[in-house]
Write a structure and sequence with these properties.
The complex is a heterodimer of chains A (349) and B (210). Chain A is of the alpha+beta class. Chain A is built from 8 helices and 19 strands. Chain B is built from 10 helices and 2 strands, in the order βααααααβαααα. Classes of the chains: A alpha+beta (349), B mainly alpha (210).
Chain lengths: 349, 210
């Protein structure tokens, strides 16, 4: 670009010549080895030009916008999220496949048989506007299925994949998938049994995405934006919007904290996936966890009267039990008693 | 509500920091970064967004004061670009390319929401205001301070086009070629002339009074 770097060329340069010279400006604004070497040498050899060079450089550096508009972090993230989502919607509706996921090459189709679990510390949804995308010429329809507390359902998607949708959860999926991708949007928790095929299956959780080719997994999303992915077998990839990417191996669980930090650990599969087979599992669970699990499982409101000792925790496993039996079980092994009044459960000691 | 105290045996912390991505791409040329993005490299997209979203936001305010319109415009161009991956043509200067895109997008959106004439004339006449930034300016003495005021006055006399060209040239470090494209000039020399004239008119304020 700057072919004529002949020092002679600049010999008679005046202020306006420096100010209109791209090579000079490049050195002032963004010096690199070459430009620095050139201009330092040139100034040494043309000492009488030093002052005008300095004036020009000062002027160039001083030009700035009068108004600064910094993109706030929330806006930065919000727009980013919308881009990723807009993208998913668009891809889901697009007829021509796009070359999207390099991980096609990372996993061979055969090796994938995975179970993921995402569990959240809360069950409240934050209401992200994720409306059904409008497909004008495309007949793809987006279907939203919502389970309130106490309700669990099983759905079968067009590709044969099955989804166990947990209580207090919502899933949005197309009536048929596009040629290139299978994507669904989840809030809350679900267990997926994904039919194995070449189109990637993507679960959009807002903050992160899970990608698989064919497998079983479980996913959810809460207001607190803490999420967990637990893998039983196979391999999966989790991407967050900051560009972080984590691969999971069987029996590994990924936790993404509210601040976006990733942590890998081991997990108990009964505790994590048990719900889909009607197992209500408490493992060293603190009171808020016990409360929210019971509330969601039985669609009741749980209240605690009195105080529990510090470090109170409950461990127990109930298979397809009634509310009374669960409460009886808790009563037997911990100091908590209960009263049931319609949809209200009072725990006390 | 807290999660079950499901303690791990040995937690492994995996965090691919953003700096990592920046480090990977900052040494690459615009052409290479764009090609990676076009191939579907999510890290390349991440890098593009990280580097260009904030400056597109700043630049966008020269056309509208409506923050949400600017956000939507940034969002739209990235969604569009992502949907066209695999078929994008080469881009030698990403900043220039994105500036052209955002300009077009914002003006399109403005036209959709307001009346045409408002955008073309008055609304943009006062945009691209320049400030001689104090920290780098020549003020050290009273004479210098006076000179700075004069220079600022001289700059305020420039036309909107001239100010825009100077900002693109000095602040944004774009080439004549890029500036010509952004400003819709048929020839690069039009950009050269525009800047040259602006500089000539400011020359006496830049030079120290002797």
């Amino acid at each position: 670009m700057f072919q004529d770097k002949d020092p002679i060329k600049f010999k008679d340069y005046q202020l306006e010549d420096f100010l209109t010279d791209e090579f000079f400006i490049q050195w002032v604004k963004n010096p690199n080895e070459n430009t620095t070497h050139f201009w330092e040498k040139w100034i040494d050899a043309n000492a009488h030009k030093k002052e005008v060079v300095m004036q020009a450089a000062t002027f160039i550096r001083s030009i700035d916008y009068q108004e600064k508009h910094l993109m706030k972090n929330e806006i930065y993230l919000e727009v980013f999220e919308k881009i990723i989502r807009g993208d998913l919607k668009q891809v889901a509706q697009k007829k021509n496949p796009l070359i999207l996921f390099s991980w096609n090459s990372i996993f061979s189709l055969r090796n994938i048989a995975a179970i993921f679990i995402l569990t959240f510390c809360g069950w409240i949804f934050y209401t992200v506007a994720f409306e059904k995308p409008i497909a004008k010429e495309d007949p793809i329809q987006w279907i939203t299925k919502i389970n309130t507390a106490g309700i669990k359902t099983v759905l079968t998607l067009e590709d044969g994949s099955r989804i166990h949708l947990n209580s207090s959860s919502k899933i949005t999926y197309p009536n048929r998938f596009s040629d290139s991708i299978r994507s669904v949007v989840l809030e809350g928790e679900a267990f997926f049994d994904v039919a194995e095929e070449s189109r990637p299956f993507i679960v959009d959780l807002g903050k992160a995405q899970i990608e698989v080719l064919g497998t079983s997994f479980n996913a959810s999303k809460s207001s607190e934006e803490k999420l967990e992915v637990a893998l039983i077998s196979g391999k999966v990839k989790v991407n967050d919007h900051k560009g972080n990417q984590v691969m999971l191996l069987p029996s590994e669980m990924l936790t993404i904290a509210e601040d976006g930090e990733f942590q890998k650990s081991k997990f108990d599969s009964l505790e994590i996936t048990g719900w889909k087979d009607k197992n209500l599992v408490f493992k060293n669970a603190d009171f808020p966890t016990v409360k929210s699990k019971i509330e969601n499982w039985f669609d009741v409101e749980v209240k605690l009267s009195g105080r529990l000792r510090k470090n109170w925790a409950y461990t127990g496993n109930f298979h397809d039990e009634t509310l009374i039996n669960v409460l009886e079980g808790i009563k037997h092994t911990s100091e908590i008693k209960y009263r049931i009044n319609g949809k209200k459960v009072e725990l006390y000691n | 509500m807290s999660i079950n105290p499901r303690k791990s045996n040995e937690p492994t912390h995996i965090t691919l920091h953003s700096q990592e991505i920046v480090r990977i791409f900052e040494s690459k040329s615009d052409c290479e970064i764009w090609a990676a993005f076009n191939k579907g490299d999510e890290m390349a997209f991440n890098y593009l967004y990280r580097v260009y979203a904030p400056i597109l936001y700043q630049y966008g305010f020269q056309f509208s004061r409506d923050s949400s319109l600017i956000q939507d415009s940034i969002q739209n161009i990235f969604i569009y670009l992502r949907s066209k991956r695999g078929e994008l043509s080469e881009v030698a200067n990403i900043k220039g390319y994105l500036y052209r895109s955002i300009q077009r997008e914002i003006i399109k959106n403005l036209k959709a929401s307001t009346k045409r004439e408002q955008i073309n004339s008055d609304a943009l006449e006062n945009s691209f205001q320049i400030e001689i930034s104090p920290e780098t300016s020549f003020i050290q003495s009273e004479t210098n301070s006076l000179r700075r005021t004069k220079l600022q006055n001289g700059i305020d006399q420039l036309t909107c086009k001239q100010r825009k060209a100077l900002l693109l040239f000095y602040q944004e470090e774009l080439s004549y070629n890029e500036i010509a494209q952004i400003m819709d000039f048929k020839e690069v020399k039009t950009a050269r002339k525009l800047i040259y004239r602006a500089i000539t008119s400011l020359k006496e304020f830049i030079k120290p009074a002797r």
